[in-house]
Amino acid sequence: MNDDVVFDKETRLVWERAPDATKRTWDAAIVYSYTRVVAGRKGWRHPAIEELLSLVDPTQSNPTLHVGHPFVNIQLDYFYWSSSLGMSSLPTYAWGYDFGNAATSNVLKSVNAYTWLVRGGYGHDYPF
């Protein structure tokens, strides 16, 4: 491991320490994950919504991360994509989480949102 990644001992996931600050559509974010190299490694993916929410401390706000968290460059003005498909109007929505206002919501895949990549765990296929 190096300073570019954070290993979560509880979930056994490896997270980008500094997620990219560029907003992308869901499809573009998938392509980005396939080409991303962090700490000399490929194989990054979007987290499932449950994995993304594992970073959240519900007692905190703006950001809704644990006090003393090791992450930098967290954007607080909009959603981060997950790999979990939204419950309304499949396949046009995916779940997202906003670390600024603690919102979990279905996000239209054609809008631009942030990407925070992870390695390990079970992952998801992207059927749509």
Structural key phrases:
three-stranded antiparallel sheet; globular; 6 strands; 128 residues; alpha+beta; 2 helices
Could you describe the 3D structure shown?
- The protein is of the alpha+beta class.
- Helix content is 12%, strand content 22%.
- It has two helices and six strands, in the order ββααββββ.
- The strands form two sheets. It has a three-stranded antiparallel sheet, with no helix packed on it. Strands 3-4-5 form a three-stranded antiparallel sheet.
- Strand 4 and strand 5 form a beta hairpin.
- It is globular and about 40 Å long.
- The model has no long low-confidence stretch (mean pLDDT 92).
Average residue pLDDT:
92
Report the major sheet.
3 strands, antiparallel
The best one-word shape is globular
Name the strands of the widest sheet in spatial order. 1-2-6
Count of extended strands: 6
Q: In what range is the share of β-strand residues? A: 15-25%
Q: How do the helices and strands line up, and which of them pair or pack?
A:
Elements: E1 5-8, E2 13-16, H1 26-35, H2 49-53, E3 80-85, E4 93-98, E5 103-108, E6 118-119
Antiparallel strand pairs: 1-2, 2-6, 3-4, 4-5
Question: Could you give a short description of this structure?
Answer:
It is built from two helices and six strands. It is of the alpha+beta class and 128 residues long.
